[in-house]
């Protein structure tokens, strides 16, 4: 089988090279990746087993040359699969599959997981509760929506990710500031923004794996602080829900409903988010047909011994997988969570090399002494991340808060 893999550096780097080699054995793999990936390969060369060809690109997320190059590869030789995992590559890979008549996620499917307006319409049409929402093409449409629904309202880019450029407007002054500084429509007045009513309450995410059109694993988790915490300099955390938590079964039922409602590919990772209101209602936020960000895959691997990313890669390679029953995995007696510590505005003067606190499964520093930051601009911006483990939700959450306090006492800024 011949496979084209479109994988940026951040997708490759957190799985051992031996795992990629094992997943791709017996296949011919052509890899398009980011220039920063060069240090991930044993010899840093352009042909490194298991990859028969490696081409690296600058500015990977926005470099449109990638599509042209990959299309040329498909025209020169028969390609059986195109593999992509990053959210920014979903549409890119879908267009290439259609242009090359290769099976897998097509454009119709991919757009429902990237275009937030069409995503909300799909959920609403399938009876999944959503906030009130509207596509904003002209400034007065925002004013009209706010007048009808009151404050606060949430503005987000139609194709955004990581909560970047997401704004909560709570006053008329905030609306005016947004229109003056951030609206910026294109010359053709193409819609760019989705406006929604703000949903008060907790936020949950469910991450899992679909194989042969069947939901084979899902892990419900609760966010700590939430995805917009970076705006106030707070950490983003998450903890798995225990099966005994009554919210767990409700989220699993909602996950089944969303999986049936959206056109997921036969094999797919997914990341799903719901709000829970003070009135105990669950409101749909977003769904993606890709792996969740942050340290989500690492927490699943830590708690349940399942690497959903590499399981998905193996499935795309048409390898038979034996995934243990999800309920059996959830009764392993282990839970996990993660925390991302955002950067401040300043220069790092000191940062700890390791962490020996109890329950820390993994610590990764993402900054070096002398490195300058201007604060965080998205929910996944970080100077450090931790995977934390325990046997109960409150134990994991307490350890998350403990490690954040410890880290903030150790890192020094100027």
Strand content: 25-35%
Global Rg: 22 Å
Please give the largest β-sheet: 8 strands, antiparallel
Can you say what the CATH homologous superfamily of the largest domain is? ATP-grasp fold, B domain
CATH domain class name of the largest domain:
Alpha Beta
Number of structural units classed as domains: 3
| Mean pLDDT over the full residue set | 90
Shape: globular
* Strand elements, count: 19
Count of DSSP helices? Answer: 13
CATH architecture of the largest domain: 2-Layer Sandwich
Oligomer: single chain
Major beta sheet, strand line-up: 13-12-9-10-11-14-18-16
Q: State the distance separating the first and last CA atoms.
A: 53 Å
Structural class: alpha+beta
Please mark out the parts with pLDDT under 50 across 5 or more consecutive residues, or reply none. none
> Which bin fits the share of residues in helices?
25-40%
CATH fold-level label of the largest domain: D-amino Acid Aminotransferase, Chain A, domain 1
Word description of this protein:
With 414 residues, this protein is of the alpha+beta class. The protein folds into three domains: 103 residues, Rossmann fold; 66 residues, Dna Ligase, domain 1 (2-Layer Sandwich), CATH 3.30.1490.20; 212 residues, ATP-grasp fold, B domain (D-amino Acid Aminotransferase, Chain A, domain 1, 2-Layer Sandwich), CATH 3.30.470.20. The chain has 13 helices and 19 strands. Strands 13-12-9-10-11-14-18-16 form an eight-stranded antiparallel β-sheet, with helices on both faces. Strand 9 and strand 10 form a beta hairpin. Helix 5 crosses helix 6. The chain is globular and about 60 Å long. The model has no long low-confidence stretch (mean pLDDT 90).
């Amino acid at each position: 089988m011949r496979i084209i893999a479109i994988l940026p550096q951040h997708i490759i780097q957190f799985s051992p090279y031996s795992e990629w080699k094992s997943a791709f054995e017996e296949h011919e793999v052509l890899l398009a990746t980011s220039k920063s990936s060069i240090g991930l390969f044993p010899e840093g060369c352009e042909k490194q087993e298991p990859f028969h060809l490696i081409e690296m690109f600058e500015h990977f997320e926005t470099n449109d040359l990638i599509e042209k190059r990959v299309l040329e590869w498909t025209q020169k030789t028969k390609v059986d699969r195109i593999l992509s995992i990053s959210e920014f590559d979903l549409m890119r890979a879908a267009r290439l599959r259609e242009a090359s008549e290769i099976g897998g996620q097509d454009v119709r499917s991919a757009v429902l997981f990237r275009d937030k307006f069409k995503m909300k319409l799909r959920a609403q049409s399938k009876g999944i509760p959503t906030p009130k929402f509207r596509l904003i093409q002209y400034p007065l449409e925002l004013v009209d929506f706010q007048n009808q629904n009151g404050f606060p309202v949430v503005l987000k880019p139609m194709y955004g990710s990581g909560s970047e450029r997401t704004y909560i407007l709570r006053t008329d002054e905030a609306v005016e500031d947004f229109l003056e500084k951030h609206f910026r429509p294109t010359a053709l007045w193409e819609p760019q923004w989705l406006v929604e009513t703000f949903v008060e309450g907790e936020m949950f995410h469910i991450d899992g794996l679909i194989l042969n059109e069947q939901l084979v694993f899902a892990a419900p988790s609760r966010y700590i602080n939430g995805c917009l915490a970076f705006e106030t300099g707070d950490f983003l955390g998450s903890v798995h829900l225990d099966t005994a938590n009554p919210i767990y079964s409700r989220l699993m039922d909602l996950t089944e409903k969303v999986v049936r409602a959206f056109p997921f590919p036969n094999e797919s990772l997914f990341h799903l988010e719901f709000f829970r209101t003070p009135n105990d209602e669950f409101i749909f936020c977003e769904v993606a047909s890709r792996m969740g960000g942050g340290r989500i895959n690492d927490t699943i691997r830590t708690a349940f011994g399942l690497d959903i990313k590499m399981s998905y890669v193996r499935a795309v390679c048409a390898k038979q997988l034996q995934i243990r029953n999800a309920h059996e995995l959830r009764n392993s007696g282990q839970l996990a969570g993660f925390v991302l510590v955002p950067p401040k505005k300043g220069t790092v003067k000191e940062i700890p090399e390791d962490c020996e606190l109890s329950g820390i499964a993994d610590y990764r520093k993402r900054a070096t002494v002398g490195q300058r930051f201007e604060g965080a601009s998205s929910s996944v911006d970080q100077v450090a991340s931790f995977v934390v483990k325990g046997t109960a939700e409150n134990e994991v959450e307490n350890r998350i808060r403990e490690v954040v306090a410890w880290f903030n006492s150790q890192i020094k800024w100027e």
